[in-house]
Amino acid sequence: HFDHRAGSPARVLRGCGSNLVLTMIFPLMTGVPTAWNGRWDDSRALLQRQCGFRVRRPVFAMFIVKKLLSILLLPPVLPLVVVGVGLLLLGRRPRTGKLLAWSGLALALLLATPGPVDWLLRGLETAPVLQPEALRRADAIVILGGGARKNAPEFGGQTVNRITLERVRYGARLARQSGLPVLVSGGAPAKSEPEAALMKKTLEEDFGVAVRWAEERSLDTRDNARLSAAILLPAGARRIVLVTHAAHMRRAADAFAGAGFEVIPAPTAFQQGPPGGDEVIPSAPSMNSAYAGAYAAHEWLGLLASRFSR
Length: 310
What we know:
Elements: H1 9-29, H2 34-37, H3 40-51, H4 59-73, H5 77-89, H6 94-110, H7 114-122, H8 132-135, E1 140-144, E2 148-152, E3 157-160, H9 162-178, E4 182-185, H10 195-206, E5 213-215, H11 221-232, E6 239-245, H12 246-258, E7 262-268, H13 287-309
Parallel strand pairs: 1-4, 1-6, 4-5, 6-7
Antiparallel strand pairs: 2-3
């Protein structure tokens, strides 16, 4: 809501842009709402005073803003934005316009080419494959959600998406090997079935693995950690086997360690190395490499934003 006593919207936004970025944009990119909660009152007062906004605590709205920022700052949109800006500048600044347009094209190709994508993944997929002896030290298995497939009529409406299914499959394997209790974590950004409920259904009906706890309110990785801690730590489960994608493990393990857990990483779905498709030229750009490149860029952006939001 805008306070018109502060002046025209255009003038006020020009005057408070830097404050908007510092108090909203960086915290929103990851860790919303948990990374912002401690500074909410200060941020709200600053925006009220200098920007004319009457800001409430709209968790879902902040989630949407975070997603919109991710869309703009990640492939495939980011290279297209760079190309578009370059084309717009061709008339006034032809050299700058051409440089930006070609840079956007080069960026799009790099993020879909196995060599550069492997380089991006190298700093993310650092956790080794889980060893059996480490599994025996744990109190519980935590499987993180990665999204849902909304249109799945063959499953009665909704089901887990490919990312979540990869995690669920490995988590089920570890649960059968160890007999450890399982917690699934994942909420729903809109009024739909929480990811944790879909994961529980998949584990129990398709893999025959019982789920003891389902955390259904989280909207991001820090939420996963904070809300899982509220369930597991009182139950005496502090040493957890954390199941997520290898590229996501670095950020997820940091969040869960910060929530009070001793984390035993159990990474799955490694994306480094030769592409998994039927590419005739493995080193050429491909859909598989483009997916891995977008995933890696997302995780690096998340790690960067986490530093600003601490």
